[in-house]
Design a protein that fits this description.
382 residues, alpha+beta, Thrombin, subunit H, Pdz3 Domain, 3 domains, seven-stranded antiparallel sheet, six-stranded antiparallel barrel
Length: 382
């Protein structure tokens, strides 16, 4: 099993004059976002019925509400990063800077796994006046000092200080987020998490307890689209954010491709334990018909041990490995089936943008897969 080590980073107190400079620079790159949305999007089941009834209604006759949050200027091309919860299904988006500038923006892409969205200023002349924030290189160690900059109720600029929690790389490689302690206010979703060097270290997703901790986890790890209420709606001292090293990969792909390209094999697994030895494994509970996993010969009940020569610990870990491989990559899979250790090869497909359980049209030719290899037979029952 491969392990990565990282050099320790020293944490020194930030001088007051330096802190003022850091805040001044970061504030210029932090924006306020107002997204006009249909009122029925806030009405649950009743809203869905109302939406169907109003399908042919003129926009001027409809009722709207404004979703407010924060965002970060990403580059000189006018791209702005925020949370998908704020702008999903928005009819109109207005961005306000700390200097009093206001302009319209459009959504160019949303990533459902990280809940991030990328906007772009509608006018080229506006984009050229925006000031991007420098990004941090590398992961953010646990205990690092953070400043949270965003906007609160009434568009008031907010600032708070806190400490970073354990980075995903050190605890659970399947996560796309980390915890931090810092006072959050309504409107802080999409705000900037700044390190002691004045660099962008993460992007605020929301409060840990907005919908309950487990609900936040489900929101960040499920394949369903984000809902409008997954943003900061009340005060809290505990938050979750996307670390900059993961946000950079997502944002740059959205800018280049319009969506995030992730690997996909079309299999669902569940972590199980052997009743005799206590060893854990991932049991296949669903194989999408005609998917890469199906073509490679994986079946219900197979016990996956390693993928791409890496021992897998849980479903999130498996998903992370697969997502990071580009479509077309050939990946060996070691698994157990009826007392035999077997190996097959899967050609990675592309994860569908809208539905993680449907098949994309570019599935590899099943004829190109090698036969399943028998590695050895087990003497014990698994």
């Amino acid at each position: 099993m491969c392990m990565l080590t990282h050099p320790a980073e020293s944490q020194t107190p930030i001088p007051v004059d330096t802190l003022v400079d850091i805040v001044e620079n970061a504030r210029a790159s932090t924006v306020r976002i107002e997204a006009q949305m249909p009122l029925e999007d806030r009405m649950g089941v009743f809203g869905q019925a109302l939406k169907k009834r109003l399908e042919n209604t003129d926009a001027s006759a409809r009722r709207w509400y404004v979703s407010m949050g924060s965002g970060i200027v990403w580059d000189h091309a006018g791209h702005i990063v925020t949370t998908a919860s704020i702008v999903h299904n928005a009819h109109q988006i207005t961005v306000h800077t700390s200097k009093g500038q206001s302009f319209e923006a459009i959504v160019i892409g949303i990533d459902d796994l990280t809940n991030l969205a990328v906007l772009k200023a509608a006018a080229t002349s506006t984009a050229q006046t925006l000031l991007p924030i420098p990004y941090r290189a590398g992961k953010l160690p646990e205990g690092s000092a953070l400043l949270l900059l965003g906007y609160g109720i009434g568009g008031i600029p907010t600032i708070s200080s806190g400490i970073a929690g354990v980075p995903p790389e050190d605890w659970d490689t399947g996560r796309h987020w980390f915890q931090f302690t810092a006072p959050l206010r309504p409107g802080n979703s999409g705000g900037a998490l700044i390190d002691s060097r004045g660099q962008l270290a993460g992007i605020v997703l929301g409060r840990e307890e907005d919908m309950g901790y487990n609900a936040v986890v489900r929101m960040l790890t499920s394949a369903t689209k984000p809902e409008a209420n997954s943003q900061v709606t009340a005060y809290s001292n505990f938050g979750v954010g996307v670390p900059i090293n993961q946000a950079t990969l997502v944002v740059n792909q959205i800018i280049d491709e319009g969506h995030v390209v992730r690997g996909w094999i079309g299999v669902s697994v569940q972590k199980m334990a052997d009743r005799f030895t206590g060893d854990t494994f991932l049991q296949v509970v669903h194989v999408v018909p005609d998917s890469p996993a199906d073509h490679a010969g994986l079946q219900l009940g197979d016990h996956i041990r390693c993928i791409n020569l890496t021992e897998v610990r849980d479903p999130l870990h498996l998903g992370k490995i697969v997502h990071e491989l580009p479509p077309g990559t050939r990946m060996p899979v070691d698994f157990d089936r009826q007392k035999q250790s077997l190996r097959t090869e899967i050609v990675i497909g592309e994860r569908p943008v809208d539905n993680a359980t449907t098949l994309t049209s570019d599935t590899a030719d099943p004829v190109s897969f090698p036969a399943i290899q028998v590695l050895n037979a087990h003497s014990e029952s698994n």
